[in-house]
From TrEMBL, chain A:
Transmembrane segments: 55-75, 95-117, 149-175, 195-217, 224-245, 280-299
PANTHER family: INTEGRAL MEMBRANE PROTEIN-RELATED (PTHR37305), MEMBRANE PROTEIN (PTHR37305:SF1)
Organism field: Agromyces kandeliae
Any Pfam family matching the protein: ABC2_membrane_4
Keywords of the record: Membrane, Transmembrane, Transmembrane helix
Superkingdom of origin organism: Bacteria
Lineage, uppermost ranks: Bacteria, Bacillati, Actinomycetota, Actinomycetes, Micrococcales
Name of the protein this chain belongs to: ABC transporter permease subunit
Automatic annotation (TrEMBL), chain B:
Sequence segments annotated as region (Disordered): 356-379
Domain of life: Bacteria
The name this protein goes by in its record: DUF2092 domain-containing protein
Originating species: Agromyces kandeliae
UniProtKB/TrEMBL annotation, chain C:
PROSITE patterns membership: ABC_TRANSPORTER_1, ABC_TRANSPORTER_2
Pfam families the record matches: ABC_tran (PF00005)
Protein name: ATP-binding cassette domain-containing protein
UniProt xrefs under SUPFAM superfamilies: P-loop containing nucleoside triphosphate hydrolases
Organism name: Agromyces kandeliae
């Protein structure tokens, strides 16, 4: 039920992304392409969600909030300042399950699934041999790349929403639900709290867009999807390690992972959307650079698979 | 048959767009922030004019984001002090008080990003930590310190039995008395100096120790700003220069930095990255602690009118007796002057202070803090584990152990004295030896 | 030049140091069934990939359906159905879903008719019963047919089929061949690559032969049967005189044929076998060699000349080499003759 909702919302947003991330083409060609883009995007999105693997990854992401909720339910509330952020709030308010799960999932599990989907985007087709048939259909190389990226973006949103929706449901089932305590010390009503939770989901989804672009580039560099996935996942970890080394502070603002956790600004009073914008800008820069490199590479590459 | 060789050029359009697009994107990413530092040219001001301008600034409302970066070479003092206090068997309230103090100290010396909100009655400092937040709310009659990490909201309020009005009246009376006294002391016909005259005198005095100049105009937080540069005239101090950015429009201080002598980058800088001088939404000052937070009450140690009078009498008595027997009194001894001032606390004072600190009473800690030059560096070394920490932080020198940061040195002598100042450790050691 | 469905000039592909396709000049007439023959690794698939814009040419030009490729890729490819280097599908999707997916990638294909066209294509290759089955569970032959169905999703002017009968059982092979004939009957140009000589012989009107990256021959199948395939065999006790006569009337006697002559001589009674190629065009350029009779003496004229000069002709034959021998000559490699 939750997933159906998720993919419906996702579709609308993803389509916007597709248009935005479409590389520049001459106007005459663009007009021609408009019609077919949505059709291919719908088809590729459906293909993604018809894969057993996609659901397995979403299920494993959904397992995170479930495990957290059950652990707290059995072991009792944890003290303040221990464990992942918000863990101490879970026992008092089930709405924090999803939030805690996002904090837990963001460094590794989420990037891992994103790496699988984005690394598979082109390399997976190449390894199946379907890439050549998509291209002679003809899908158009840049059009296919843009659609594949948009589908990866849809997955980013689906992944973040899965964690939040499953977390909220399990939190609702196991714990009391009440006004949400903000970091600033005040509290907001449940409805507003849910809205902020959704905004955080959107924030996390946007956070993963830069990594998706990296995965897309990796995906155009090889015909072995596992290689592209592994390279992307490793980069996600390396970026966070670099981000933790103070001596490399000058490089931190450029890391795609630099603002992954700044969604806490949405839990302040007053909520600050500035970090949402900054993060979107940072991700956009990564999309521009790595998407551009992927487009350049994919447009000129010989398809031998 | 076709004369056109389409083969090699086949990918041209597809290649060229990204090939040009990518470098352009990178160039933009680098150039756009640089453009923000485009040259600024404000009307010239002399240092005196600039100081007067800054002083005359009447900003009573703003909201902005402060970025403070400190590379003093100090450990996180907040944790250090908090840890020391909670390690002891203090009552919870005392631990909390000590934590609060530690937090405030770390706010003063640490690195953080914070939002600042200010209007005529309220102020709020919102320190933005990762997945956490510390807040200081100030409003008439009450103050909150809120820490999301520990889920506590500490209300600093005036004790119920405090006679605030009486105290205010007493202070007004004392001020009037002082003014009358000062005017009586003046030569005939002269009034108290105007603020401008006071400023001039202060500048004259400052000029003896410090070269004051106006630096290059620049942009701070998107606003055109003057830069006031203070350079100590002595090279005995560790401080190289202090720069203060002053808003070109309303004279508000927008940024400040302290650079150690010989260093390239400031050891301490704080400033707005974003600022607006419009009154913030009053909602940002409203604070109602969440049900999930532990609320603690802490009374501000306001003296009663009688106590205040007693203090003043004590101080006067001390000032009078100072002429007779200086050395006997437990109070800081000052060596040197200006930037190279070194404060010495003798063994008795140190013992008294640590005793007071160990007791954990908020009043004694605060009072001592006000006297001491560097409360931040005053370690709670009565505790065993704190002693270990002290050992780890300091390096052995002749006659004791020293803590050296880029802007300040502290010497703990073996015989229990403490020397502190913005001077090299060698200078402290020299004072310690000469005073023995 | 709209009478050619595919036309290349000096089309070359170099992978680092290795030349995969070396300056080939293909000419595939519209409406033909063009057999693109060559051993594995001779550059057939690379050529097809260049024609379809999957691989960029190092040099040379290609026109497909009268449009420069790959510039006109987006306009041309919707009219081209192709099977390249075996069929390929997402194994987790059903056969029908796979076809629908490829169809969605073609922006000229209408989504509203997609379901019908997919069903028709599946029906045409006899896969309707397996439409809902996951492609991963298909047999090799079913995949091959699904690949053909993909090429038939839209009305096509040109079908490029790379080894279309690979992996099919004899029955499937027959079905595919009759399918190809039916396309040709509809006027569709079919460019079919194969390493199976029999397949080409049965299906094709035209042939091109690749060897080590070069197009060593192309033309109609009949031209191939004729060109360079006939040789004169003269059984005579006067081999030297016979050679002299044959040389005089413009035939090149075959020194290599001496071996069978020795064998024949030892076996027989002093007779020797003198052979000569009837055509001196060893590598017919297809269309250039379509009139071999013009500069060649007729068979009876050869006999007459021999007899006139007193050569005792005890046996005379015009031998036509089989296609297989011809291809072996051209490529230096054997073919699988059986289909």
């Amino acid at each position: 039920m939750s997933s159906a909702e998720a993919s419906a919302t996702v579709g609308a947003l993803g389509a916007g992304d597709a248009a935005a991330s479409e590389p520049p083409v001459p106007p005459a060609v663009r007009r021609l392409r408009r019609g077919g883009m949505a059709s291919l995007f719908a088809s590729e999105t459906a293909t993604l969600f018809r894969r057993w693997r996609t659901w397995a990854m979403l299920a494993s992401l959904g397992l995170i909030p479930i495990l957290i909720a059950i652990a707290i339910r059995i072991a009792g509330p944890s003290g303040p300042g221990r464990g992942p952020a918000f863990l101490d709030q879970v026992a008092g308010n089930g709405l924090f399950v999803g939030m805690t799960a996002l904090v837990v999932a963001t460094p590794l599990f989420l990037p891992l699934t994103i790496a699988v989907v984005s690394g598979d985007a082109i390399a997976g087709e190449a390894s199946h041999g379907t890439l050549r048939y998509l291209l002679i259909a003809p899908a158009g190389r840049l059009r296919l790349l843009a659609v594949k990226y948009a589908v990866a973006a849809v997955f980013c949103l689906a992944a973040a929403l899965t964690v939040i929706v499953v977390g909220t449901l399990i939190g609702w089932a196991l714990f009391p639900i009440g006004p949400v305590t903000l970091l600033s010390g005040g509290q907001i009503p449940v409805g507003e709290g849910l809205l902020r939770l959704l905004a955080i989901g959107a924030y996390v989804a946007v956070s993963m867009l830069g990594l998706s672009a990296i995965g897309l580039l990796a995906s155009t560099l090889t015909v072995v999807p596992v290689g592209a996935m592994a390279a992307t996942a490793i980069l996600a970890v390396v970026a966070q390690i670099v981000g933790a080394i103070p001596q490399l502070e000058w490089v931190h603002p450029f890391l795609f992972s630099d603002r992954w956790f700044d969604f806490d600004d949405l839990l302040r009073s007053p909520p600050s959307w500035e970090s949402f914008g900054d993060n979107a800008l940072l991700q956009a820069a990564w999309i521009a650079v790595f998407g551009g490199l992927a487009a350049w590479r994919f447009a000129t590459r010989d398809i031998l698979s | 048959m076709s004369p056109r060789r389409t083969g090699p050029s086949r990918f041209r359009a597809r290649t060229v767009v990204p090939a040009i697009g990518v470098p352009v994107a990178i160039a933009l990413a680098i150039l756009v922030p640089m453009q923000a530092n485009a040259s600024v040219d404000l009307p010239d001001k002399t240092p005196e004019e600039l100081v007067a301008f800054a002083k005359a600034g009447d900003v009573d409302a703003l909201s902005g984001t402060i970025e403070q970066r400190s590379e003093l070479g100090l450990p996180d003092l907040g944790t250090l002090m908090g840890g020391g206090a909670s390690g002891a068997n203090d009552s919870e309230a005392d631990a909390a008080a000590s934590d609060t103090l530690g937090e405030l100290v770390s706010l003063a010396t640490g690195s953080f990003d914070a939002n600042v909100y200010l209007d005529s009655d309220h102020a709020r400092l919102q320190v933005l930590d990762r997945m956490a937040e510390r807040n200081v709310y100030l409003s008439p009659g009450e103050a909150w310190f809120v820490d999301s990490e520990t889920q506590t909201a500490t209300r600093l309020g005036v004790a119920d039995d405090a006679d605030v009005e009486g105290l205010e009246a007493e202070l007004d009376r004392l001020a009037d008395e002082a003014r009358a006294e000062a005017e009586a002391g003046l030569p005939d016909g002269e009034q108290l100096p105007t603020p401008q005259q006071l400023l001039d005198r202060a500048l004259d005095r400052l000029d003896e120790t410090t070269a004051v100049s106006v630096g290059t105009d620049g942009r701070v937080a998107g606003r055109d700003a003057y830069e006031l540069v203070l350079e100590p005239r002595t090279d005995e101090t560790l401080v190289g220069e202090i720069r203060v950015a002053i808003d070109g429009e309303n004279g508000a201080a927008l940024a400040a930095s302290v650079t150690a002598r010989g260093a390239d980058a400031p050891a301490f800088e704080t400033g707005f990255t974003d600022v607006s001088f419009a009154a913030p939404d009053p909602a940002v000052f409203a604070f109602e602690p969440s049900d999930a937070f532990a609320v603690e009450e802490e009374a501000l140690p306001l003296p009663t009118v009688d106590e205040l009078r007693q203090w003043i009498a004590d101080a006067q008595a001390r000032a009078e007796s100072e002429a007779d027997a200086t050395a006997d009194l437990p109070r800081p001894i000052v060596h040197g002057q200006g930037w190279a001032t070194v404060v010495e606390l003798d063994a008795a004072t140190v013992a008294e202070m640590t005793a007071g600190h160990r007791a954990g009473g908020g009043d004694s800690a605060d009072a001592d803090g006000a006297d001491s030059v560097a409360p931040a560096t005053e370690p709670p070394f009565a505790e065993g584990e704190a002693l270990d920490l002290l050992g780890a932080l300091t390096t052995p020198v002749d006659g004791g152990r020293a803590l050296q940061t880029s802007l300040m040195s502290v010497l703990f002598t073996d015989d229990g004295r403490v020397f502190a100042g913005s001077v090299p450790v060698d200078a402290l050691v020299a004072y310690a030896e000469s005073g023995r | 030049m709209s009478d050619l469905a595919i036309q290349t000039h000096g089309l070359t592909k170099r992978f680092r140091a290795q030349v995969a396709v070396d300056g080939i000049d293909l000419a595939v007439p519209r409406g033909s069934v063009f057999g693109f023959l060559g051993p594995n690794g001779s550059g057939k698939t690379t050529t097809i990939r260049m024609l379809l814009g999957l691989v960029g040419a190092t040099a040379g030009t290609a026109r497909v359906l009268g449009t420069d490729m790959p510039k006109g890729l987006d306009d041309v490819l919707p009219r081209v159905g192709a099977l390249v280097e075996g069929p390929a599908f997402a194994p987790f999707l059903s056969g029908a879903a796979n076809l629908a997916r490829f169809d969605a990638a073609d922006r000229h294909a209408s989504p509203s008719t997609r379901g019908r066209r997919v069903a028709e294509a599946l029906d045409r290759v006899g896969l309707s019963h397996a439409a809902r089955k996951k492609a991963g569970a298909y047999s090799l032959g079913m995949k091959q047919r699904l690949g053909l169905a993909n090429a038939l999703l839209m009305p096509r002017d040109l079908l490029v089929l790379d080894e279309p009968t690979n992996g099919l059982d004899p029955q499937g092979t027959r079905e595919v061949r009759s399918l190809i004939r039916s396309f040709a009957a509809d006027g569709t140009t079919v460019f079919v690559s194969s390493h199976l000589l029999a397949e080409v012989e049965q299906l094709c009107t035209h042939v091109g032969v690749m060897s080590a990256g070069r197009l060593v021959a192309q033309g109609t199948l009949d031209e191939f049967r004729r060109s360079g395939a006939s040789r004169v065999e003269v059984l005579t006790p006067d081999p030297d005189a016979a050679r002299a006569v044959l040389a005089r009337i413009g035939l090149v006697t075959d020194a290599a044929a001496a071996a069978p002559v020795e064998a024949a001589a030892s076996a027989g009674d002093g007779d020797a076998l003198v052979t000569a190629a009837l055509s001196d065009d060893r590598a017919p350029g297809g269309r250039a060699a379509d009139d071999p009779a013009a500069d060649q003496p007729a068979a009876e004229a050869v006999v007459a000349a021999l007899v006139r000069d007193g050569v005792r002709v005890r046996g005379f034959a015009i031998r036509r080499t089989s296609l297989e021998q011809r291809f072996v000559e051209l490529t230096g490699e054997g073919f699988d003759v059986v289909g």
